[in-house]
């Protein structure tokens, strides 16, 4: 299992190498988009901003379903993979390489997605993490929705440290999670292992993420001119977060 690595403050710049495109969670794209649509209830054809879009799997699936999509990603390697996949399918998706904190978008989108974290809480300070919500609020049109998927702080407080593994179609993911109660960060590392006739173990990938209570998120949304409209379980049903729930989904509305 992974050992405890020192986590660089800018870990997110290199924290998602191309091998992460084959992680077990990347096998669930259609189901994840189904769930996002269930939660946000779009009419169809909305303009969507996909933050920290990675290889563009959600962006591409949304475009297949008729949405107009812009994907933003900091990693040029992942963005190249996203653009190549879009070109191979003939899908018109706009991709931007950018640090989301530097985005200057105003009243351009009906929906903003921060799925599989969407880089929420990844940055060095609370002020920089707050900037993510400022960008979301600015980018949304009036009445627009933001869906964010995050680890549940209540689960982290009660159950960490822990070691776990997830098996996907082609990759095994080993994870080591611990809770930094002083700074309110979940920290740790993951190790991807490629499955096949010969197992291939990749380098350990450190990570660090600021987690938020629902009350904190409600205050943040309020401060940027939005409101926390709903919280959901992984099934897509409205639910107040419980400690046995590993992650939460939060809907903000402008």
Strand content: 25-35%
The gyration radius over C-alpha positions equals 17 Å
- Stretches where pLDDT is under 50 for at least 5 consecutive residues are none
Share in helix: 25-40%
Order of helices and strands: HHEHEHEEHEHEEEEEHEE
Q: Structural class, please?
A: alpha/beta
User: What is the topology, as strand order, of the major beta sheet?
Assistant: 3-2-1-4-5-12-11
Q: How many helices in DSSP terms?
A: 7
Q: How many strands?
A: 12
Gross morphology: globular
Average pLDDT for all residues = 92
Largest sheet: 7 strands, mixed
Short description:
By secondary structure, the chain is an alpha/beta fold. The protein has helices at residues 11-14, 29-40, 57-64, 76-89, 126-139, 153-159, 214-223; strands at residues 47-51, 68-73, 94-97, 109-114, 140-151, 162-167, 171-180, 185-194, 200-201, 205-210, 227-232, 247-253.
Can you describe this structure?
The protein is α/β, with parallel strands linked by helices. The chain is built from 7 helices and 12 strands. It has a 7-stranded mixed beta sheet. Strands 6, 7, 8, 9 and 10 form a 5-stranded antiparallel beta sheet that branches. Strand 6 and strand 7 (171-180) form a beta hairpin. Helix 2 packs across helix 3. 39% of the residues are buried. The model has no long low-confidence stretch (mean pLDDT 92).
């Amino acid at each position: 299992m992974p050992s405890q690595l020192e986590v660089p403050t800018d870990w997110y710049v290199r924290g998602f190498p191309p091998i992460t495109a084959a992680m077990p969670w990347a096998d669930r794209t259609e189901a994840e988009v189904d769930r996002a649509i269930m939660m946000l209830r779009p009419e169809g054809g909305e303009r969507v901003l996909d933050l920290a879009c990675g290889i563009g799997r959600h962006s591409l699936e949304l475009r297949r379903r008729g949405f107009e999509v812009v994907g933003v990603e900091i990693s040029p390697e992942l963005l190249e993979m996203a653009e190549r996949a879009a070109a191979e399918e003939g899908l018109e998706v706009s991709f931007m390489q950018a640090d989301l904190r530097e985005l200057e978008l105003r009243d351009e989108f009906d929906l903003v997605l921060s799925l599989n974290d969407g880089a929420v809480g990844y940055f060095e300070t609370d002020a920089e993490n707050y900037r993510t919500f400022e960008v979301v609020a600015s980018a949304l049109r009036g009445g627009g929705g933001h869906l964010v998927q995050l680890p549940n702080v209540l689960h982290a407080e009660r159950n960490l440290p822990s070691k776990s593994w997830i098996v996907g179609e082609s990759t095994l993911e080993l994870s080591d999670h611990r809770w930094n109660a002083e700074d309110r960060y979940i920290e740790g590392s993951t190790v991807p292992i490629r499955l096949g006739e010969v197992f291939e173990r990749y380098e350990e990938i450190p990570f660090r993420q600021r987690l938020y209570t629902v009350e904190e998120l409600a205050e943040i949304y309020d401060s940027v001119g939005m409101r926390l409209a709903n919280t959901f379980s992984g099934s897509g049903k409205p639910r107040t977060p419980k400690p046995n729930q590993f992650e939460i989904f939060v809907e903000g509305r402008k």
